[in-house]
Specification:
Length: 377
C-alpha cells in the first residue's frame, strides 16, 4: 500500500474533508452514526473546550491511499495548564461527552484497520502532536495485538465496551421462532394485555428534518420520564442539559437528518413510547428512547422494539445495532456481542507512567462526580 497521512489542525481543513469523508462513509457497511462527518463536525462545535486552564486543539488524522481517503481518526489534542504553558497533554477521539457519543471508533475501510494502529504507533514514537497520554479505542483483538507487540507503550487502564448487534432473518416469524422462551412470553403478554384493554398499537415513523424537529420535544419529555422510572436498570436523562438538546437539534438541521427516524408507538392514536434511530447503510442504529410511565405495565418499550424489528425486516435491513452497554433489554433478543476496548496509554518510562497514572485517577474522580450529579438531576 502506498499510504500517506496528514494531520488537520484547523477548522478550514476540517470542513475541506467533508466531501471525501462522506464518500468514505458510503463504503462502510457497518458505519456508526458517531463516525460520520456531520456528527463529528457538530461535536467539535458544541463540545470542544477552550478556557483558562483547558484548551482543545484539532488533530484529525486523515490517511490516503494515493489520492483516495481510506481512514479518518477525528482526534482532539487537549492541553491542561495555563495559557501556552501546559503541564499535561493527551490525545483522545472526539466524543468525550456524557454518553451522547456511544462509540468513538476511527473510520476506515476494512483493509486499512491495521494501518490505523500502525499509525498510532508512529504517533507514539514521534509524538507528532506532542502527546503525553492518548486514548486507543478499537476492536479488542486488534488493540490487544497492537499493545502486545509495542512494548514502548504502557496502558494506564482498560475498559471493555460491549456492543450488541442483532442480525435479521428473512421474515418476522422465522426470527421470532429462534428467540428464547422468556422474550416470546414477554411479547405475548405485551400484545395480549393491550388487546384486553382495547388499546390498538401502531408504529408511526417520523422522518424528515422538519417533522423530526416538530416531535423532538415530545421525545425529550418521554426520555426524561423514563429516567425517573423506578427500575432495576438506571437510565439517566442524557438530554437534561440545554447543550445536549441543542446538539441533537443541530443534527436534525444538518445533512445527518436524512439518516434519522423517530420510531413512535401509538396506542389509539396517542404516542406513548419513542426511540430515535439512525439509518446507517446496511444497519439501523437504535439510539436513546423514552416512554410514558402511565403505560409501563404494558411493557411498551418492548413492544416498540418488536415493531421496529418487524419494520426493519420489511425494509431488508441486515442488522440492528442495539447500542452499547449490557442489559436485558438487549441481550434478551439474542444479539451478537462485539467487544471494543478503550485504553489510556503513555510512553513506557517511569516518569510518564507515574505522572500519567496520577492524572488519570484525578480525571476519573472528576468524571464520576459529574456522572453522580447527572444521575441525581
Amino acid at each position: 500500500m502506498t499510504l500517506r497521512h496528514s494531520i488537520i489542525t484547523t477548522e478550514t481543513g476540517f470542513d475541506a474533508l467533508a466531501s471525501d469523508w462522506r464518500t468514505l462513509e458510503a463504503e462502510i457497511p457497518d458505519l456508526l452514526p458517531f463516525q460520520t462527518f456531520d456528527w463529528n463536525r457538530l461535536w467539535w462545535r458544541f463540545f470542544s473546550d477552550t478556557s483558562l486552564f483547558h484548551r482543545d486543539e484539532l488533530a484529525i488524522c486523515a490517511m490516503y491511499d494515493n489520492e483516495k481517503l481510506v481512514a479518518v481518526m477525528p482526534l482532539c489534542n487537549t492541553h491542561i495548564g495555563f495559557y501556552r504553558f501546559h503541564v499535561y497533554r493527551y490525545v483522545r477521539p472526539f466524543g468525550a461527552d456524557p454518553n451522547l457519543t456511544e462509540l468513538r471508533l476511527p473510520l476506515a475501510l476494512p483493509a486499512y484497520k491495521d494501518s490505523i494502529l500502525r499509525f498510532w504507533e508512529t504517533m507514539s514514537r514521534q509524538e507528532i502532536v506532542g502527546l503525553a497520554e492518548f486514548q486507543l479505542i478499537h476492536t479488542q483483538a486488534h488493540a490487544e495485538h497492537f499493545l502486545t507487540h509495542n512494548q514502548e507503550i504502557h496502558p494506564l487502564s482498560s475498559r471493555t465496551i460491549p456492543n450488541f448487534v442483532l442480525h435479521l432473518n428473512d421474515d418476522w416469524h422465522t426470527f421470532k421462532a429462534k428467540l428464547k422462551r422468556n422474550i416470546k412470553e414477554s411479547l405475548r403478554h405485551c400484545y395480549n394485555s393491550l388487546k384486553r384493554d382495547q388499546l390498538h398499537p401502531e408504529l408511526k415513523l417520523i422522518e424528515g428534518s422538519e417533522n423530526l424537529k416538530l416531535n423532538i420535544t415530545k421525545f425529550f419529555a418521554l426520555h426524561t420520564a423514563r429516567a425517573s422510572a423506578d427500575a432495576d436498570v438506571s437510565h439517566p436523562d442524557y438530554f437534561a442539559k440545554a447543550q445536549h438538546k441543542d446538539f441533537i437539534l443541530a443534527l436534525l438541521d444538518s445533512e445527518f437528518s436524512r439518516r434519522c427516524i423517530m420510531f413512535s408507538l401509538e396506542l389509539n392514536g396517542e404516542p406513548v413510547a419513542m426511540r430515535l434511530g439512525f439509518k446507517m447503510n446496511d444497519e439501523l442504529y437504535l439510539y436513546y428512547s423514552g416512554y410514558d410511565l402511565t403505560y409501563s405495565k404494558y411493557s411498551v418499550m418492548t413492544t416498540l422494539v418488536a415493531e421496529t424489528i418487524q419494520w426493519a425486516i420489511t425494509q431488508k435491513i441486515q442488522r440492528i445495532n442495539l447500542s452499547v452497554g449490557e442489559d436485558v433489554s438487549k441481550t434478551r433478543w439474542g444479539p451478537e456481542v462485539i467487544n471494543y476496548v478503550e485504553y489510556h496509554c503513555v510512553r513506557n518510562n517511569f516518569l510518564r507512567r507515574t505522572f500519567g497514572q496520577n492524572i488519570y485517577r484525578l480525571r476519573q474522580w472528576r468524571k464520576n462526580t459529574l456522572l453522580r450529579k447527572l444521575n441525581q438531576a
